Amino acid sequence: MVLIKQIGEQQSLVKQSPLLDYSKGLQVSNRGISVPLYKFGHKNANSNENHGGCSGFTEEHSLIDTLLLAQWEDRAAKGLLSYDVTACETKIICGRSKFIAQFIEGWNSKHSLRHVGVKDLDPSKYKMMNLNREEVLFCVAESENMTYELISSATVLSKATLIIINENPIEYGHVFIIPSAVCGFHQLLDLNSLEVAARIAVHVNNCFFQIVYDSSAASTTGNYLHFEACYFANPLPVEMVPVIPVLGDWENIELKIFEIASYPIKGLVFKCKENFKLMVSLVAEVCSRLQDQDVPHKLLITDCGTKIFLFPQGQNEAMVQGFKTGSNPSAWECVGYFVFKTKLEFDQATEESILKRLTAASLNNENFQALKQLCCFLASKMLLA
């Protein structure tokens, strides 16, 4: 594990991805297809509107929430899913942590995004995403207007964010979110892509809607940066554990940073209801520093886009019953949701085995302390800017 370096004043904040110039590399092979297009609107991008978090269940669905659910259900009815995820057996594993286990027979954890094209490192070349019309539920893009809008049918744009159905879902409404404008040959998370994902959570405005990011998932998706999202009927296990304030006089500042307590894998929580862009900028910068040092990490965007969990990881080479050797937990596993593809694994899953797996992947104390110091330094600098 590389020790996280101390940061000096001379280092800049929130650098753009060096591969941003290669954004034209993401192209849909069926360029002529038309799908619904949701546009954010400038008013929502910079104001505090809709950034209040979830205060409870509401029967009124937002426009993009209704669109996502309708499109996903339409594709499910057309047989695009490998199985009926609502019929899969799910249970709470006995123990204090209340981890969630799900049995999906023969589940394929490899993502279904298909790519064709070159595999060398020549930046003048690119891969193409091979999609058919039915796989793309809709697109998301910026609007010239002040408020959000929905266009019922529009040609897929190279810079639009694609919302694509996951044919191997783990929960209702499981989709891929692909910020096309920042996708190149490599997978790098930057401020633009994280802001798009978080703004989608804000606009969906549904407490049951969760978004995750996995920095180590590049090998299974052709190196295209992506997020995953789906709906959960109940809070995820990690959302139920206590947190400890990290950043100074946290009650009197607009940005809050907490450490997750009493949880097997170390993590941080960033929360900001008054300044959405500040929170996203800080998390993007922290992830950039982790990327620079090859530290695997996962994100959970929750509470209608006002809260982001960060799970930095060490290298896990331990064999734990029911799990593969030498692999870090996925983003879904970090938040407490585990999928098993055999009934035996599902029946034998225990809290003890899961705790061992998550603990083995956790960042060590020295590096985690350095990460907390880095977060406080960056947050203080941004707050004073």
From TrEMBL:
Residues 64-230 form the GDPGP1-like N-terminal domain. Signal peptide: none annotated. The keyword Nucleotide-binding applies. One of its GO terms (molecular function) is nucleotide binding. Keywords: Cytoplasm, Guanine-nucleotide releasing factor, Hydrolase, Nucleotide-binding, Nucleotidyltransferase, Transferase. It is found in: Cytoplasm. Residues 237-380 form the GDPGP1-like C-terminal domain. GO terms for biological process: glucose metabolic process. GO terms for cellular component: cytoplasm. The keyword Phosphoprotein does not apply. Belongs to the GDPGP1 family. This is GDP-L-galactose phosphorylase 1. It comes from Amborella trichopoda.
